[in-house]
Amino acid sequence: MNAFQTLSAALTNTPTRLVAVSKTRSIAEIMALYQQGQRLFGENKVQELLEKQPQLPSDIEWHLIGHLQSNKVKYIAPFVSMIHSVDSVKLLFEINKEAAKNKRIIKVLIQIHIAQEETKFGADEKELIEILEYYTAANSTLTHVCIAGLMGMATNTDDEHLTAQEFQKLSNLFQSVKKTYLLNKADFTEISMGMSSDYQIAMAAGSTLVRIGSLLFAG
Ligand SMILES: *Cc1c(COP(=O)(O)O)cnc(C)c1O
Predict the structure, then answer these.
(1) Does the pTM of the predicted model rise above 0.85?
(2) Which pick of 125, 156, 183, 196 has the fewest CB atoms within 10 Å?
(3) Homologous superfamily assigned to 3-218
(4) Ligand 1: does its nearest atom lie under 6 Å from the Cβ of 156?
């Protein structure tokens, strides 16, 4: 079995879907996975996504997984399936505006800062609550975005115990806001966590989307 088949087998009969992270990979490499049945791909840069998307089949579901600047939302709004990296009210309103122009509802995840590193992007709990209050307000104008869940990246470490703790923290936060802010929103279902080095730990903590690149394309 190749890496894709091994991973697909590991995800069969689980609640977890594979986001094939295709950043830096060629059109031919992406097509090789497509031909084996993969339809869900993730890119972390807007520019690279814009170059690849028109060259590839239109039934690919594209997820933007990396940091997104407000001024670039308009380029991906016509086709992107999900944006994993929303971490401010401002960005959410910008996505809503561009989605409306395209007569679409764009699914987004709120990226939460769970790692110890200072450098990673992401909202803290206070910012998450602020976003959810805008989203769930009775007079909310956020009608062209669907907050579908949370995303997080663990600390880059060999300490599996720390990784497990961080993923569990995200999972607990997901459950608690689902019960408080999102009771009436059936679409709040996704926890995007886990990459090549830690996807098994993430799955044990309840991941529904694993974002895997290097392991998948290694061979
Ligand atoms: C690159 C990337 C991944 C995949 O990382 P691998 O270690 O190659 O599996 C996942 N999430 C984000 C946000 C990335 O930029």
Answers:
(1) yes
(2) 183
(3) Alanine racemase (3.20.20.10)
(4) no
